[in-house]
Amino acid sequence: MSAYGRYILTNLSCACALGRTAGDVLASARAGSRAGMVSLAGDIPNRAIIFGMVPGELPAIAGSEYDMRANRLLLHAVGQLRPWLDAFLGRYGTSRVAIVLGASNTGIDEAQGHVDRWLEDGAKPQGMSFSEIELGTPADYLKKVLGVAGPAYVVSTACSSSAKVFASARRLIEAGVVDAAIVGGVDGRCRFAMNGFHALGALAQGECRPLAPDRDGINLGEGVALFTMEREDRAEAGGGIRVRLAGVGESSDAWHATAPDPEGRGAEAAMRAAMEEAGLSPEDVAYVNLHGTGTPANDAMEMKAVTRIFKDLGGVRVESTKPMTGHCLGAAGSIEAAICWLYISSGLVKGAALSNSFAFGGSNACVALVPEGGDA
Predict the structure, then answer these.
(1) Measured distance CA(279)–CA(286) in Å, rounded
(2) Can 327 be counted among the known catalytic residues?
(3) Residue 208 contacts residue 126 (beta carbons within 8 Å)
(4) How many whole angstroms separate alpha carbon 293 and alpha carbon 278?
(5) Which of 255, 258, 226, 288 is nearest to 158 (CA)?
(6) Is a pLDDT exceeding 70 seen at residue 238?
(7) In what order do the strands lie in the sheet with 47-52?
(8) Which domains are present in the chain?
(9) What pLDDT does residue 36 have?
C-alpha cells in the first residue's frame, strides 16, 4: 500500500453550479443538469457569456476586511459541515490540523470595484483593504472562522491549484507538522479573470462542448469544495462517508505560458504518477474526470495522453463535467475531485477514479481516489 493509500477523505462539503450542497451536486451531475449555467452580460464589454453560478444567496460577512465572494462561499461550505468539523477539530486539537486551499482569484473582483470607485471619486473607498488580493486570504479567513492554530495557506498554480492541495497536505502530515488537514479550493465570480480569458480568445461563444469536433472554448464558473483528510489508522470508525486518497501525481512540463504540450506528455506523466502511487493498473480505473475545458488544444492533448494509458478506452468511463459547472479555475481541481468522491461514495463508480487538472505553464496534477475497501 502506498503512503497515499493510508489516507482517507472522511467528509465533504461542496457548492457549484450543480447545487448548494454535496447532495445537490451529485443529483444534478447524475441528471446532466446545466441549470446553473447562466448567461451573464456586462462583465465583458459588448458580449454575454455562459457562467457556472452557485445558486441562491450566500451568508453575509458584515463590516470585515474578509468580505469577499470567495470567503462567503467558504462560509457557506463550513455551514454545511460545521458539526463534523467541530468534532474533527475536537479529536485532533486545533494546533494539529492544517488548512490547505487552492485558489486563483481571491478578492480580485472586490478590489477591482474599489479601484473603480477610487478612480471615480479620487479617494480611497472606505473598507478597502489590500489584503483582498493576497492569495492567502481565504486560508487565513477559514483559519479564523474555525479557530485552527495549525498551518494555513493557499496553493495557487492556476487551474491545478486545488488538485495539488492533497499532495501538500499529505506532506505536512508525513513530516509530523500536523495530524490531519482540511483541504479544498474556492474561487468566486471574477470579472478580471473573465476578461483575461476573453483576451486570450479562450471563451466559448455559447455553451462549452468538451471533446466535440466543433468545440470553441471554455465556460467559466465558481464554487467551493472542502474535505477532511485523515490517516486511515486515526480516522474515527463509522464517522462520515470515507473514500481513500490513493495517489496524487504531479508534473511540470513548462511547455508554454498558456498553451499545453500538444502531445500531452506532462498530462500523461501526472496521470501515470498518480496511478503508480496508488498501485493501480489501467484495468483498475473505472472513471476519469477529464480536465476537459473545451478548448481545441487542451482536449486534443488530454485525449492523446488518456488513450496512450487506456488504449481503446473500452473499460473506463471518461467525461468532462465542466459543461455542468463551468471551469472553476483555482477551485476546479477540488470540485472535480468532489464529483469523483460523490460518484464513488454513492456507488455510481465501482472502482478507482482519476481527476485531472492541468494548468498554465504546464503545472499538472492528477488525483486518484478509490472506495475505502479498495486496493491502493
Answers:
(1) 14
(2) yes
(3) no
(4) 26
(5) 258
(6) no
(7) 37-44, 47-52, 220-221
(8) 9-231 (3.40.47.10), 243-371 (3.40.47.10)
(9) 97
Q: Does residue 190 have an active-site annotation?
A: no
Query: 13-26: b or e for each residue (b if 16 or more CB lie within 10 Å)?
Result: bbbbbbbbbbebbb
CA dihedral 199, 200, 201, 206 (to 10 degrees): -80
Number of residues that make up the chain: 376
Catalytic member of 76, 114, 327, 366: 327
pTM for the whole thing? 0.95
Question: How far is the C-alpha of 169 from the C-alpha of 181, rounded, in Å?
Answer: 6
Of 14, 76, 208, 291, which residue is the catalytic one?
Answer: 291
- The residue with cell 492523446 is 304
Question: Could you say which of 159, 328, 340, 366 is catalytic?
Answer: 159
pLDDT value for 327:
98
Cell numbers found for residue 18: 450543480
Nearest-angstrom CA–CA distance, 324 and 374: 29
Instruction: Please confirm, yes or no, whether 76 is among the known catalytic residues.
Output: no
How far is it between the farthest Cα atoms of the chain? 63
